Amino acid sequence: MTRRPPSYRAGQSDRQGGFFRHIAGVLTLVCLIIGSKSTVAAVITVQPGGAIQTLSEALLLAMPGDTVHVESGTYIESNLRVVKPLALIGNGWPVVDAAGRGPIFEVTAANVVISGFELRGVPVSFVKEHAAILLSETENCDIRDNRFVDNFFAVYLAHSKRCRIIRNSIVGSATELTSAGNGVHMWYCRDIAVQDNQIHGQRDGIYLEFVTHSTISGNDSSDNLRYGLHFMFSDSCRYEKNRFARNGAGVAVMYTSQVDMLENTFEDSWGGASYGLLLKDIRDSRVLGNVITRNSVGIYLEGSDRIVIEANQFHANGWAIKIMANCVGSKVTGNDFIDNSFQVATNSRQSFSEFDGNYWSTYHGYDLDRDGFGDMPYRPVSLYSLIVESEPATMVLIRSLLVDLLNLAERIMPTLTPEALADTKPRMKPIS
Amino acid sequence: MRLSLHIGWYAIRDVARNRWGLLYTAFFLVVTVGLFQLQAQSAKVAVSLMSICLFLIPLVSSLFGTIYFYNSREFVELVLTQPVNRRTVYFGMFCGLGASLVAGFILGVGLPYLFFMTISQEQLLSLLLLLAVGSFLTVIFLAISFLLATILDDRGKGLAAILGVWLFTALVYDGLVMLATMAFSDYPLETPLLIAVVTNPIDLARVTLLVQTDWAALMGYTGAVFNRFFGTSLGVSIAVVALCLWIVTPVLIGLRQFRHKDL
Amino acid sequence: MIEISNLHKRFSKFVALHDVSLSIKRGSVTGIIGPNGSGKSTLIKCLLGLVNPTSGTITINGSVLDGACDYRQSIGYVPQIARFPQDLTGNEIIDIVKGLRKEPATLERELVERFDLRHELAKRTRALSGGTRQKLSMVLAGMYDPELLILDEPTAGLDPVSNIRLKQFIADHRDQKRTVLVTTHIMSDLDEMADEVVIIIDGRIRFAGPIRELKLQTGELRLEVAVARLLEREAA
């Protein structure tokens, strides 16, 4: 699952023109000096039938700090190296089509802006991770308001920091995991903001590995083959107000600590290995205010410690929460559990987590002292959920009279369900 | 057919004025209104209603059918001394009573929905599915009760038999299925289980309704046959065919028995 | 009118009719008598097609009973107990029967008038007295002017007024040269109404013929006594 780092390094493949490169380097330096002295940066316009007709030409001519305007038209170009700080602005959605020949932009300079383009046609490769835009060993770049259509990878960040990926639309047409790339792929990055993007039809919508202090917010990552968000070894990150829907396997957050997951929507992840949110080997993280609806499993926790799950809404999931016994010290408080087929399932009679003050739509207790909390504890793990756990095929009997009676009997005389796993203060009314 | 409808029409009029017929409607009305009063969320109402329907429709409709059949013995005699054949009479009574009970159920459950809430399209669909499946169940158990009442002349035996059938299909059958699943857990069980479900009308109705309420959970079970059954229209098609068979078979056997029955 | 030959009916172990052969003439009034459980109801139900004979044949009005239903067009039937769907009105009951037939109910109005039923028919049958329900029964049986009228224990539990009306009803049919078949265990009734008598005991016919003949055979004037004599003689 872990991807190798890409072996891109600016100019390395350009072996022939060492001399010219040297000259170019000097020129660039001169330009930089001039550019920094003159207050107005030049504007270069690329236009079909104009003086400059290709982006590669423009990139060669442009001085650092220049703005390159690209007028609408179709440009069949690939392997465009951006080695100077430039603003590349498309007017009227110019199309840059790699036509299956390779990546499009490879940015190695800092302070680059790419905006207003439609980028398409970056081919699937089993050797290289071709991307429509690669940001490598750079910082402070903006990729905003672009359309990515049918690319292998759309935006790929490696060893970069302080970049912003904003309001892009990324639409892939991946059908097989092996030949699909990710929408926004980050590797060894920090301080990245991925904001308000639409990402569909890729392998993973957003992928983070060894990324820290980054924020993923306001994105809609849906209908991707594997995970809407795939999150590994990425401490101290935050993702909020995103929507993840109908992804093959939901959202996975693994091997990480200090992640804030706030106010996201997790919807419609169906399947035997599909989760609204999969938490595996996570520590000291918070899951707050999310809406988790119609997933086979709302949140799956395995080997995860000290997770705070609070003020979320679990609605119409197969299992709202599946929590394995190797999770310690988690708190599930103040959530709404409504109309889930199974509220909580676990694989042990023991529980090392705390359930408190949640609303359970299946709670039938009473509140004589009128403090808003039921007077009897609620045990969200039903006998039937244990049966299904050991014999999944008995699922066909769900909501039968037999199951109701079994659960009722177990509720009256608990013998098999985890005794410690109980909500001592179940709410009488949903919070939201 | 025209004569059957004629007889059916008068059976409908009879039930429509009958205390028990009205009670049947009132019962669903009260239950549904009660659920709406008790529970704020309509989704929850739908789930509770589903359990109640699966539990009570078979019971009530089969008891009703049995009692009605025994009570209309004189009426049957009256009609049969006219120049009509027995098939017409049996079928007519079945249709009339079936239509009455289905109408009672639909009114009882449907009216509160219309009254208490503005229905979204999704809810309307799930309500329609509930009404459709409930109607199927009503008619299926009516057909079974007519058959049993035809075979068993003794009223007490007939009632006992139909209660037995209800208890078996509503509870015992599922218990056996669960035990079998545990006993044979080492074997591939998907297909036999689906067959088992289709063979019991209550299970069949339940499973058809599950698509609305518990699809997420059903999809969480990894099994190719299972997923194809519930995930595609294949399952629905099989379910509809099986539900129809559950009506047609007892009716046909009942007709045969009734033709040769001494009244 | 009716030809019955070698009719057997067995209910599981119990033999209800044993080799019954009988011929009933057109235009006669025949009483079938016998104790309770003797098989007379079974015999009538066989004629009506409500009970399927184990063996033997029945011919009514020229057609052999084989499960077809058309022959019942010429039969009017007054059951032992007049019971109807309780929540339908008398009019609706009449409509049911009319809906099942193609021909017009020629005598409907006349019978309703004669029994003074007009106002009663708008009520649900559960609100009608036993006597009124029997009137309704007679309307249903007679309104198609049937060639064959069958009555099963019609006098059982009737008040005197109803009783007289019933006898008049039968007499009218006789006057119209219709065939009437009536079962009863009250023999005094038959004395007034019937020409012919059939005595069935334990599923066998003990006597079939004109009442006159029975009285002659036994030398008794009252039918009741004549039957008793006959039975004594059989037993001896």
Oligomer: heterotrimer
Radius of gyration of chain A: 26 Å
Roughly what fraction of the amino acids of chain A lie in strands?
A: 35-45%
Q: Which consecutive residue ranges of chain A, at least 5 long each, have pLDDT under 50?
A: 1-17, 34-39
The count of strands of chain A amounts to: 38
Tell me the greatest interface.
A-B, 35 and 42 residues
Q: Kindly state the mean pLDDT of chain A as a whole number?
A: 88
**Helix/strand structural class of chain A:** mainly beta
The helix/strand class of chain B is mainly alpha
What does this structure look like?
The complex is a heterotrimer of chains A (432), B (263) and C (236). Chain A is 11% helix and 37% strand. Chain A is mainly β. Chain A has a domain at 249-381 and 417-432. In chain A, the strands form two sheets. Chain A has a 25-stranded parallel β-sheet that branches. In chain A, α2 (55-61) links the parallel β1 and β2. Chain A starts with 17 loop residues before the first helix and ends in a 20-residue tail after the last helix. With 263 residues, chain B is mainly alpha-helical. Chain B has one domain (2-259). Chain B has twelve helices and no strands. In chain B, α3 (42-71) runs parallel beside α6, α3 packs antiparallel against α9 and α6 (121-151) packs across α7 (155-183). Chain B starts with a helix and ends with a helix. Chain C has a single domain (2-235), classed as 3-Layer(aba) Sandwich (Rossmann fold), CATH 3.40.50.300. In chain C, the strands form two sheets. Chain C has a six-stranded mixed β-sheet, with helices on both faces. In chain C, β7, α5 (160-175) and β8 (179-184) form a beta-alpha-beta unit. In chain C, α7 (211-218) crosses α8 (223-235). Chains A and B meet through α4 of A and α3, α7, α8, α9 and α10 of B.
Question: Which features would summarize this protein structure in a list?
Answer:
heterotrimer, B: 263 residues, mainly alpha, 12 helices, 87% helix, C: 236 residues, alpha/beta, Rossmann fold, 6-stranded mixed sheet, 8 helices
Q: In summary, what is this structure?
A:
The complex is a heterotrimer of chains A (432), B (263) and C (236). By secondary structure, chain A is mainly beta. In chain B, helix 3 packs across helix 7 (155-183) and helix 5 (86-116) packs antiparallel against helix 6 (121-151).
